[in-house]
Design a protein that fits this description.
The structure is a single chain. The chain is mostly beta strands. The protein has a domain of 59 residues. Helix content is 0%, strand content 27%. It has no helices and five strands.
């Protein structure tokens, strides 16, 4: 279910509202990135690309996985072909301290 609305509060104004959610039939994609050992990968870049029928493929959403490796894209266009790419930084890092003069 979903709802969508805009609000532009004035200075010093407190806005109170009740929202009625409507059924939502739009698709969504939820996933979890894991490493080869099955452990969640936090901070992986997740890129959603839609396949163009008459135009080139285009990136439609970009996000990062949370601390449990989860990511979500939505709402999506029903029947559209999407590609999801996940990129995790596995480089080892170390700090190099510069000697003092």
């Amino acid at each position: 279910m979903y709802a969508n609305f805009y609000v532009r509060p004035s200075a010093g104004e407190q806005v109170e509202t009740t929202i009625s959610l409507r059924p939502d039939t739009r698709p969504a994609l939820l996933g979890t990135a894991v490493d080869p050992n099955g452990k969640p990968v936090a901070g992986a870049l997740a890129v959603l690309t839609i396949s163009g029928k008459t135009e080139p493929d285009r990136i439609v959403r970009i996000t990062y996985t949370d601390e449990l490796g989860r990511f979500a894209f939505g709402p999506l266009e029903p029947g559209a072909l999407y590609q999801v790419s996940l990129h995790a930084d596995t480089m080892l890092r170390r700090s190099l301290e510069q000697p003092e003069d």
